[in-house]
Structures are given as C-alpha cells and as structure tokens.
Design a protein that fits this description.
- By secondary structure, the chain is mainly alpha-helical.
- The chain has a six-stranded mixed sheet with strand order 5-4-7-8-9-10, sandwiched between helices. It has a two-stranded antiparallel sheet with strand order 1-6.
- It is built from 29 helices and ten strands.
- A hairpin with a 6-residue loop joins strand 4 and strand 5.
Length: about 750
Amino acid sequence: MSSRPHLARPGQSHTPTHPSGLRQTYTASSSSSAERSPGPASPEISATHRNAGGKRPTEASALLDVREHVHEGPCNHGTFSPRPTSPTNSLHDSVSPSESEAEVSYPAIDGVLSVTPRRRGWKKQWAAKLRSRKMSTSSQLAERHGVKDSLLMYLSYYLPVMVWAREYSWSYFKGDFIGALTVAGMYVPMALSLAENLAHVPALNGLYSFVFNPLVYALLGSSPAMVVGPEAAGSLLVGTVVKASVDRGHGDDGDVAMHAKLCGIVAGVSGAMVLIAGIARLGFLDSVLSRPFLRGFISAIGVVVAVDQLLPELGLSRVADTAHIGHASSVDKVAFIFRNLDKVHTLTFTVAATSFAVIMVCREIKRRLQPRYPGVAYFPDRFLVVVLSAFLAYRYEWDKAGVAVLGNVESASGHLFTFRWPLQPSNLPHMREAMSTSFLIALLGFFESSVAAKSLGGEGFAGIQLSPNRELVALGSANLVGSCFGSLPAFGGYGRSKVNKSTGGCTPKPVMSSLISVVAWSLIEECPHDVSFFLQIRAWQELGLMTIIVLATIFFSLAFGMAIGVGLSLLQVIRHATRPRIQILGRIPGTNRFENAEANLDHLEFIEGCLIVKIPEPLTFANTGELKSRLRRLELYGSNLAHPALPRLRQDACNRNIIFDIHGVTSLDGSGTQVLVEIVRDYRQRGVRIFFSRVPGRDSKVGRLLRLSGIVELAGGENRFVDDVHEALKLTDAEEFGEPGMSDRSSGL
C-alpha cells in the first residue's frame, strides 16, 4: 500500500475508510494463494466478523468494533468463549489478591489476616515457633470460626493412631479378632515360605516382618485397612543380594548368620531411603512409574518366582546346588530342568502338584461363591493344606523318603529377638553392595503401597486423610524398626492385595513352593487382560515397555529388568516434560473464538499478517530447550506437524505481528525467562511486533519476572499486554495503520 489509510476519529465508529490487511482472513485451503499475493485480496479471502447489525460482514466491517455475543450459563465453545465481562487480571490493569479481597467480602476468610494478636504465655509462644506457615494460617481460621485449635489436633494428623484409637468401638473387636486369627493362619506360613525359598534367609526373619512392621505402620500409616508385610518381589530381591554376597566370597550358602545380617541391612537401607523421601515430601514420585511398567515388572516377577519354585517342587534343589544353577537366569533354570527330568523326585513332585491343584480349585470355588456368600472368603483352605500336609509328612515319614521339610524354625543368633542396628559403620561395605537393590525395593514397595493405599483410603475412619508423604514416613519407619531385628522388607501393595485373599503355608517344602507358585500365578493372571486392552487401543509404546521389562527380567536378572523399566519410564517422563506444547491458533468463522489450528485445520481461518501462538503450560528449564525451534517451525510452516525438510511455506509478511496467549504460563523460572527474553529480542530486531494476551496478574510471580527481565520494555511497553486475543488483534490493526489514541487506551500507565 502506498499510503496509510484514514481511520475513524476517536468517539466515532471504528470503521476505517479503507480496510486493512489485518481484517482480511483466509482459510487453510486459501492460505497459500493469499501468502503469494502481495496485491489486492483474493476473492477467496472472506471477512468473517459479524457487524453490529448481524448481517454478513464485508471487508469494511471493523475488526476494532466487533460485538461479543454472550449468554447465561457455562460456555463450551472453546478456549476463547465470549464472556459477560472482560477479564481484569492483565499485566497493566490488574489488582493484587489482597486488593481484590478487600473489595469483596468472603465470610470464610474475611478478617483472617487482620486478627489482632493477643499476649500469650510461654507455652503458646513455644508452640507458635514449632508451627509451620500452614498451621499458623489454620490457627487464624480456627479462631475466626470458633474451632478449638490445639497442638493435639495437628499431632493427630501425623499420628493417625490417635484418630482410629479414639473412634474404636468394642463392637469391632469380635470381627477384628476373627480377622486376626484368619490372617495369622494365612500369612505366618507365607512369611516362612518367602524367607526360606525366595530370600534365602532363616525362616524366622520372615515372621519378624509380620511382628514389628505392621505394628509401627498401625501407629503412623494413613490407610488402616492396608496389610503390611513381606512381598514376593522384595523377598526375591533380598535373595539376589544374598546370592551376590556368596558369589563375592562373603560366607557360603550355609552361613545363616551372614544371610540374616544382610537381610537386616537391605531392609534398613530401603527403609531409610523411604523415610528420607517422606521427610523431603517426595510423595509425588508415585506418579513417575507408569501402569505398564508396574504390570510388566510384576508379571516378570511372577514368571521368575514360578521358575524358581519348580526346582524344589521337582526335587531338584540339591542337584541345582551342585551345578551352581541357583544364581542363573530363569531361562538357564528352565534349560537345566529339561536336562535333568530323569532326576525328578516323584513323591516330591506329587505332593507339590496335589497341593497346587487343591489350592487353585478352592481359590476358584471361593471366587465364584463369594458374591453370594461373602463369609466363604474366611474359609482357611490354605491353612488346612498346611496342617494336612504336615500331618501326612509326620505320619508317613516323608522326610526319610527324600521329601525336603522345613524343620525347626530358629533364629540365626540363637535368641528369639536380637536387636542390631543395621546402619552402623562396620556394615558400610555391605551397604554399598546392597545400595542399588535396596533402592529398587524401596521404589517398588512404595509404588505398590501407594496403589493399594489409594484404593483403600481411610476405610472405616472418616478422620484419617490419605497422604503419600505420611505413607512414606510410616513405611520407612516400619522397615527401619523391623531391620533392627533382621526382618524382610515389608510393604503393602498389589501383590499383598492379591495374596490377601489367597495365601497359606506348610511344613513340607514342596507344599511351601506350591503356595508361592499360587502367588506367582496371581501376579501373572491379570497380564493378559492388560495386554488385550493395550492391543485394543493400539498402545504400542506401553506394550513395548511391558515386553522389554519381561524379557530383560527372564533372560538376564530381576535387578536388570527393574533398572531397564525404571530407566525407560524416567525417559518417558523427561521426554514428556521437555517437549513444548505450543499451538498456533485459528479463528472459528463468524466468531471471536480461537482454537488449536492443528486440530481443526480445515475449519478455521487465519488473520493475515498475524501469527497467534498459545503457550498452554509453565515455562521452565525443562521445556524451553526446544521452544525457539518450535516457534521457528510455526513461522515457516504454520504447524508443528510439518517436516523440517519442506521448503518455506509462510513468508515474513505473514508473521509481522505475533501474539502470545500465555494464560497457561502459571509459573516461570529463570531459565524460561531467559529464553523468553531472547525470543522477544530476536523478534524485535527483525521488526516483528510482539503482543501478549491473557497475562497473569501484575503482582504475580510471572508478571514480576516479565517486568524485571525487561520483556515488557522489549515488547514495546505495557500497552502490548492485553486481556485477550481479540483485543490484541485490535491493537495490531491500530498500530499498523496508526489509529490515534488506540495504543494509549490499552495502557494502564
């Protein structure tokens, strides 16, 4: 254009004598022709704003005077739905939270910040020093509403036993007593089995984890219904530490004292890690590992456990010890079994197979009858198998016939309870060797426990609120106390929930192995359902993760499979966190609403000369690394989905005004601010106008950083920061064609 058009005077209708290029819009199908035509607008270009009369607008329809149509009730038209009132939290005319609260009366919090302090005694002064900021605010709220505020109230939050003990009624005792007997009959033999067969430690160490750990968790845990005890996964990982220690020459397979010591060290280190994570408020980490990771790893554990138990079930334990196959992978053990089928002990295999069949049949019968007869769940079928097998072993002297039996259950130290602090300097070499495995136990244990705790919550006690951080403290404290007596690591979770309805124990080792095989089956049985679901939704990434974890665990080791799974899960989290999610916005024809153009490319129109970019997330060091390249791709192609090998599709004239919608930027760190400064400076040096819409309040952290970093000044002043995209479009039109006073009306300075 050779000359600037004459715009309407202030106070008149904002209808320019000559239409501006910014008021011209084009759809995706006509964008290429519009970009190639520097002259008059193409016939395909259509102005889509509605004028005040409601008629079809023409090129002369003023973008600067578009009426927004509002209605009562919630809007569901998109990101920029018309609103009865314009937002007032922009950078230039916002008010601080305290100012807005002063204008509106909120009975719930009115006067909280202006409570007149009173003289307090020395006890209250000391209590005030111990209180956190949240507790101080809570005290003011309690005083405002006449609620008694005491240190006991906060203590009850951190010690849930003070809640459920106060609410406990003798009417609960009968059911709890029967439940305790049932659980004891089911879990005591299972604890012996896990310690003896998986962890390779004295059987009594498995019982310790059902004595000390549940007691401590009952005092500190926020999920009273959760059962805490040893798990197959944790016990198996303890066994890997014991085997590795033997391989390094620290004792032999018969050194039960050393094995018990290592068990306490592993439990102590994992408990300390969990406790420190709770104190550091890292409870959010339960969301890091994905469901496919948990399913794949638990299924792999089920396979490993089942293969491990085949050796004692077939009576090949002694042959395996002679061949040193006990420390090999699951694939090597299966190959060993096939090579030694001629050495299978017939009676041992018969006892194990019969026990497994009886348990599985009873399990299926109980599953079908339980909906109609809930009491059938308390039938102690596993316990009866234990008692019957022990009686038959004694009556027919199976031990003399070659069937391995558990024998006497004794402590490695010769005393029932021996206190040993596991984290002492003399144990430092063992702690270093067990550090990685202890970390895996802590991570998996907490992840499984959090899943169970979320499903159970504070069942039966309304005053108990579930807290991941308190769960970490409770589980860590429980394992630290248990480790002083050499207990197995004890958590609650997925495996515990499955075993809770189907467990047991025995004296003959083939029966013990068959019980653990049932646990292995329960760990694997839900895997086909998840695989079918992921196939149905074509979640190839999740299926790949599950497959890699299972194969790595079976062909190599449990620790390697766990490490691979954790590493891949963390890579997914990092990839997700570091990928910018910026969007190019297009306008819905006939409206002033804007949507993601990449999702609705053929149904939106674009404003000539404007690139509208939405940043829907906080800007931090994690996700700003690729922000410049993503913006550059939007400039060149108008889409993040375009391959960078394409030639340039958008000319510089299409990007002479860039509008950033930063409503989603709720936080901004130093690195993100620095990258944003570089982006704005680069655009300004290229002569591009920069506008920001829907900016957080002036007194917010984001608003302060925008001013202190110089972004406001670089962009052209606070008049470039407006309430919404529509206002920014008005401003671009005014600045490009020089409407008198338009820029000043947007500024609060």
